[in-house]
Specification:
By secondary structure, the protein is an alpha+beta fold. It is built from 4 helices and 14 strands. Strand 10 and strand 11 form a beta hairpin. Helix 1 crosses helix 2. The radius of gyration is 19 Å and the shape is globular. 27% of the residues are buried.
């Protein structure tokens, strides 16, 4: 399921890149890039749209392709339908700014968790400063996709071993309409783009509601018991971290760390200890 969540990488990037920060980070030619990234941050809160996303993830000699129908009602309602080869949703994610529903139609299972709170200004400010400390951000060209003119932004790592990212940002709206991720060896590891895209005034409210069907198993995650470190990571990643409900006797949460930074390949390691051993 994780490999299929291609579009969420764009959502995370919008939160990380769009904030105006001090002149110590942005200067000279970076000013236009700053404006463009600010537009990318503001765009989802300003524009409602619907479209289809094509996505491919490469792992070793294998690839995983997926098609996702995306509905977004500004400022923060979202619905993603992951489509099977017959054109039917095999899973659906709905986020109505209060709850996030993950409907696994093939398993008759529904996971419900609190909606992910957006990073506040100070958190995004700090995250973007760290990004500029570790990546070189530059405009590398222009392109056109689904009738939209885009400016292409390259994020190249300053340190070996990190992935390189490329964003295509629509010049009219600031929305990210194509994203690419490259392995340290230069090979493409992830590609996502809108194959269809339409701005809309208002979407049907029913798209962002869900009533469990008879026979569906509903699993609810209450964020009140989560350690603050895990809550903070959820806000940074824009995704629910599946925290274990049961632990061996004596074990308590110790720490959380991100092993792979960008969705849909976010890998979070949660460590628990009993004072001597760790799991």
């Amino acid at each position: 399921m994780r490999k299929m969540r291609q579009l969420l990488s764009a959502t995370v990037l919008l939160l990380l890149f769009g904030l105006i920060i001090g002149a110590q980070v942005f200067a000279g030619d970076d000013y236009r890039t700053k404006e463009l990234l600010m537009a990318a941050l503001l765009a989802p809160a300003q524009y409602s749209y619907q479209g289809t996303i094509a996505s491919v993830v490469w792992s070793g000699q294998h690839s995983c392709s997926s098609v996702i129908r995306n509905y977004h009602q500004a400022p923060s309602y979202n619905r993603w339908e992951f489509i099977d080869t017959c054109g039917e949703p095999q899973s659906v994610i709905i986020d109505n700014a209060q709850e996030r529903w993950e409907i696994l139609t093939t398993e008759a299972k529904v996971r419900v968790a609190p909606s992910i709170e957006r990073c506040d200004l100070a958190e995004a400010h700090a995250e973007l400063i760290r990004l500029y400390q570790n990546y070189t951000v530059s405009q590398v060209g222009t392109g056109q996709i689904v009738g939209c003119q885009a400016i292409i932004i390259d994020l190249s790592p300053k340190f070996k071993g990190n992935p390189r990212q490329v964003l295509w940002i629509d010049t009219d709206t600031g929305l990210v309409i194509r994203w690419e991720k490259y392995k340290p060896d230069g090979n493409l590891s992830q590609l996502g783009y809108f194959s269809s895209f339409e701005l809309v005034d208002k979407l049907d409210p029913a798209l962002f509601q869900y009533t469990p069907k008879s026979g569906e198993v509903v699993e609810r995650q209450d964020s009140t018991f989560l350690p603050q470190e895990v809550v903070d990571l959820q806000k940074q990643l824009g995704e629910v971290i599946r925290y274990p409900g049961n632990l061996p006797p004596g074990y308590q949460f110790s720490r959380a760390r991100v092993l792979s930074r960008y969705q849909p390949n976010d890998t979070v390691h949660l460590q628990f200890t009993d004072g001597l051993n760790s799991i």
